[in-house]
Amino acid sequence: MTTRLLIVGPQGSGKGTQGVRVAEAYGIPVVSTGDIFRANIKGGTELGLKVKAITDAGNLVPDDVTGEIVSDRLSQSDAVDAGFLLDGYPRNAAQVAYLDDFLASQGASLDAVILLEVPRAESVARITERATIEGRSDDTEAAIAHRLDIYETETAPIAETYARRGVLDRIDGVGSLDQITERIFAALDARGIVR
Ligand code: AMP
């Protein structure tokens, strides 16, 4: 049983938290490009040094850099055997095309794309709260607004691509953590994707 999922949503939609819960339930690893970049920045690696200024400003890391990271990670045996839950990738049309090609080379494709829908004001409030708790260096007010703008112009449109393919599940991202997890499970259950 291989389950390949993607969770998409604006920053502050709770996709990181929900992604972990869903991945755990399906026994698949979370592949979060944001987490990979943060770990590299923290560890002072060559990649970390290369992307720190970009992520701090709320800009997107170049597609070739990000694509290589994702294809390396998805080529590892746990992801090949069990599948994965992607969080934060793909984020634009070029990345969708890259992922399509990569998965096609394995004879695979995404089983479902979960879109967490949260109004912009709610996203801003949640990220601002997280900024005080976690102290992420890219959670300044200007960077938050910039990241949400990029989400709206570059990332939100990819949902339409997946909707046309019939794999998109739109989930109301406002509610308690448990309510939202249950909504996601219900949508995946309806697709016959078993836990
Ligand atoms: P996230 O935790 O997903 O919000 O990612 C944090 C930051 O990492 C983003 O603001 C980008 O600078 C960078 N990043 C993460 N995923 C991607 C991606 N798919 N493409 C480009 N940059 C990314």
UniProtKB/TrEMBL annotation:
Residues 32-61 are annotated as: NMP. The keyword Nucleotide-binding applies. ATP binds at residues 12-17, 130, 175. The keyword Secreted does not apply. It holds the Pfam family ADK. It is found in: Cytoplasm. Transmembrane segments: none annotated. GO terms for molecular function: AMP kinase activity; ATP binding. AMP binds at residues 33, 38, 59-61, 88-91, 95, 136, 147. SUPFAM superfamilies: P-loop containing nucleoside triphosphate hydrolases. Its EC number is 2.7.4.3. It is an enzyme of class 2 (transferase). One of its GO terms (biological process) is AMP salvage. Keywords: ATP-binding, Cytoplasm, Kinase, Nucleotide biosynthesis, Nucleotide-binding, Transferase. Pathway: Purine metabolism; AMP biosynthesis via salvage pathway; AMP from ADP: step 1/1. It catalyses: AMP + ATP = 2 ADP. One of its GO terms (cellular component) is cytoplasm. Consists of three domains, a large central CORE domain and two small peripheral domains, NMPbind and LID, which undergo movements during catalysis. The LID domain closes over the site of phosphoryl transfer upon ATP binding. Assembling and dissambling the active center during each catalytic cycle provides an effective means to prevent ATP hydrolysis. Catalyzes the reversible transfer of the terminal phosphate group between ATP and AMP. Plays an important role in cellular energy homeostasis and in adenine nucleotide metabolism. Monomer. NCBIfam families: PRK00279.1-3, PRK14527.1, PRK14532.1. Belongs to the adenylate kinase family. This is Adenylate kinase. The lineage of its organism: Bacteria, Bacillati, Actinomycetota, Actinomycetes, Micrococcales.
